Amino acid sequence: MDPFLARALSALEEMEGKPVQAGGKTLPLEALVPSPQPRKRFEGLEALAESIREKGVLQPLLVRPLGDGRYAIVAGERRYRAARMAGLSEVPVRVVELSEKEARLFALVENLQREDLNPYEETVGVLALLSEDLGKPVEEVVGLLRRMRKEKRGEAGHNVMASPEAQRVEEVFQALGRMTWESFVQNRLPLLNLPEDLKAALEEGAIPYTAALELKKVKDEALRKALLEEARAGLSLRDLRARVRAVLEGKREERKGDLALRLKALLPRLRTLSPERRARAETLLAELEALVRGKK
């Protein structure tokens, strides 16, 4: 396992549930600076704020000094936000010396260990971690993952598995222990291209990612919206798949009917052709109609 990721995971395990020590360091909220992170939702803040009003902050925030009297939050932004809501002026902290890159990596690892991350946030977080670790833009990381998968499938022209970057990807996924990189490419990368309505529902936690991927197959917005509402209401994945399949089959039959009508519309124009061309056109039309009707 990578030394830094191992230290980060070890530190997180050590911090898990560790109470605030008497006489420990505290800092004013005004001195704390939240750090960018993939997590967009902070649910249950009011409940946590109420708990903080009664019992205080039970676990210190992890921060690093910025050198100007301010401290960047490495882990614990949810507690920071709830403490502000609770009206606190200061919070307990644990100060660690980390470089900016180490802090970003630590924060990403910490976020990925949380159980309340939805699949879309987790996907963005894993890609951000790989991007930071490999020193490559997210788009290049996605391309690398897809080339790795193609090589695994035996497709020629993708000799990347022996590269240091591919080996590093495998190490990171092994360190995180949440899923394999193959599963990530197959089940999570497609979430990046979801329509906005499905992405929003997924970010809200209203539907599982498997339902989002199924609904993605429906291109008609009105039909997809209706199916999305059923999924929100608790429609099982099995029933949802059946509904989606019926919609797609109905669309195919509709396209077949439209094509058949267009073929019939061509028949009156055959009279304007020469006998040889007309015979050829009639043969082609007959073959097309047979294909449309599923006879061949």
Automatic annotation (TrEMBL):
Belongs to the ParB family. InterPro entries: Chromosome_partition/occlusion, HTH_ParB/Spo0J, ParB/RepB/Spo0J, ParB/Sulfiredoxin_sf, ParB_N. This is ParB/RepB/Spo0J family partition protein. Pfam families: HTH_ParB, ParB_N. It comes from Thermus tengchongensis. Residues 25-112 form the ParB-like N-terminal domain.
